[in-house]
Write a structure and sequence with these properties.
43% helix, 8-stranded mixed β-sheet, single chain, 8 strands, Rossmann fold, alpha/beta, 232 residues
């Protein structure tokens, strides 16, 4: 069975994996609405400004987007996130809270808004993919705040799936390993960049994660709920 969404909404759509998902979905002729804190406009597509750490903005943005779906099936991809470095001995409270806000609280706001929209009848079916991280499942050296936040995101997916088992809703995580994007690159060491360069031909990239996300939307969400696809 193939699921064909009437609308795909991407949070964090201006760059990195979010942009890759947005571009691929558009190339496959799906209706797409993209949001990002830093908007982007090209000749064919406009990413709208929205701060995913603002619950009111998320609720209003999702409501605006759903009007374009006319009560149909909606797939959401949450690619909001930011890397950080440091151990628990190094990370300040401000840095820790920022990592939690961007990588976890935003996911909470987006997921809650989507569930509520489904309950209100704004869509007939809703699925959400959260771009998590292998660091959330396995930990990652010198990335305390980021790893903790992504672990929380994986927990969010599992718990929401337990609470909402209706066939009209699906939640899935994709947990990549090292992906060298314009956002992550400043946080990579020289050794990590070399590792990525050597593995790139046979492993993961933003475009590869986008391909997987689109497969999950069309095929995987029929059976998957609450799990994580790990891509290392």
């Amino acid at each position: 069975m193939v699921m064909t969404p009437d609308l795909i909404i991407v949070f964090g759509a201006a760059g990195g994996m979010g942009r890759a998902v947005t571009d691929l979905a558009r190339n496959q002729s799906f209706p797409v609405i993209g949001y990002d804190k830093v908007p982007r406009t090209d000749e064919e597509f406009e990413v709208l400004e929205l701060d995913a750490c603002d619950p009111v903005a998320v609720q209003e943005g999702l409501a605006d987007a759903l009007r374009h779906a006319n009560g149909g099936r909606v797939a959401v991809v949450n690619a909001v996130g930011t890397p950080s470095r440091g151990t628990i001995a190094d990370v300040t409270l401000e840095e820790f809270e920022r990592a939690i806000d961007i990588n976890l609280r935003s996911a909470y706001f987006i997921t809650r808004a989507l569930v509520r929209s489904l309950q209100s009848g704004a869509s007939s079916w809703a699925g959400i993919i959260h771009i998590a991280s292998g660091a959330g499942a396995l930990g990652s050296a010198d990335r305390f705040a980021y790893s903790v936040a992504k672990a929380g995101l994986l927990g969010l997916c599992k718990q929401v799936a337990k609470d909402f088992k209706d066939d009209s809703f699906r939640i899935v995580a994709i947990s990549p390993g090292l992906v060298d994007t314009e956002f992550a690159t400043p946080m990579l060491t020289a050794e990590e960049r070399e590792e990525y360069r050597l593995r790139r031909a046979e492993s993961i990239s933003a475009e590869g994660i986008a391909e997987l996300a689109m497969w999950v939307i069309r095929h995987g969400m029929i059976a998957m709920h609450g799990g994580s696809l790990d891509v290392y």
